[in-house]
Amino acid sequence: MNLILVTIFVFLLNLPFGYWRANVKKYSFQWVLAVHIPVPFVIAARIFSNIGFELYTYPILIGAFFLGQFLGKYLYDKRKNLGHSPLTSCLVMDLVRNN
Q1: Which of 13, 42, 75, 85: CA 20 to 30 A from 60?
Q2: Which domain range does residue 60 map to?
């Protein structure tokens, strides 16, 4: 049960960071931050949920990490193509502002 909750947490945590990553230049400092800032939170979630660092948890959590990043980027691209403007790098503010 803990692994499922941590996986959901990792996925949801990475959505806004993927959204941010989509709005900045690739391999810029902000892009690197958008990819790496969630990592300490994932490590903390692993420790505090007592799932530890077992080998079988890596593919699940890495998949959730990248799925959250890519879905966040997809949300940004989708909103951009639908003409929502102005778009910022903050998913939460864009959702609040346009709804």
Answers
A1: 75
A2: 2-98
